[in-house]
Amino acid sequence: MKLIELLKEKLNEQELKLVPRSFDIIGSKGKAVAIVKIRRELESKDKLIAEAIMKLNKNVKSVLKKLSGRVGKYRLYNLELIAGDENTEVIHKEYGYLIKVDPRKAYFSPREATERQRIASQVKPNEIVMLMFAGTGVYGIAICKKQPNVGKVIAIEINPDAFYYMQENIRINKLSDKIIPILGDVEEKCKDYFGCCDRVIMPFAIEGWKYLETAIKCLKQNGILHFYFISSEERLFQDAIEILMKEAEKLGRKVEVLSKRIVGRFGVRMHKVCIDAKIT
Ligand SMILES: C[S@@+](CC[C@H](N)C(=O)[O-])C[C@H]1O[C@@H](n2cnc3c(N)ncnc32)[C@H](O)[C@@H]1O
Predict the structure, then answer these.
(1) Which residues touch 125 (CB under 8 Å, ≥6 apart)?
(2) Which mutation among 70, 71, 133 tests ligand 1's pocket best, with the greatest number of atoms within 8 A of CB?
(3) Which one of 52, 106, 145, 205 is most buried, counting C-beta atoms within 10 A?
(4) Residues 71 and 143 in one domain
């Protein structure tokens, strides 16, 4: 049954048209939270909508309403609990690994699971991987599960709550011999790894470009960079490639683009893209 059908008796025709068509569910069969965007016109009906979501999805124990897009350095939504349990910490399962997270405290998007697998499937045995902007460590966990013979993943995160969850995720996925979690600013913490890494991942599309110099300095000769960027539809990959080439050139390095792809939509006629490149 669809949400809209469940609400047929309680909302008028106009209101039914505005009911959210989709929402994120993070968690497990036992306990999950739903994150939903509710149109201003339906604000007075938000509890009804939340209850319907919980009725349809028995595992959803809390419903959080988005009060904003992702904001600030930690890239968190402002979320308001509109129904259910105050405790919104959950354990999410994807591709056989577990991610413990409270979406009110740390960034996590279940929609990026396929992209994480795409990156993880490129990692080769013994590689040293730098995971900048690590969040809950989910890219690192995905890599270690897909490529158990990876050398090490160095995972740097600035949000102390996200860092706490990263440590928890390393523990519950039994990866303490593979992932080195570091709390701090990539600008500072990467310095210890200059010239050491076979691969650098930059999953921070809005501001990652500011740290390209640092990322490139981490890479060995012929290392691989995964550079995420927000692009307009008109200049889908050009801007990202130009910025990358400019930064590499400053350091006397060259860029060989291996692949470019749209990862997802980002507002009106804007896209999140990823450039995979070899830095020679
Ligand atoms: C878009 S989120 C991605 C998180 C994680 N990689 C994921 O995919 O779930 C970007 C993350 O970068 C962190 N961050 C922002 N600026 C940072 C910096 N200068 N150094 C380290 N981490 C930073 C934020 O706290 C946030 O957790």
Answers:
(1) 147, 149, 150, 151
(2) 133
(3) 106
(4) no
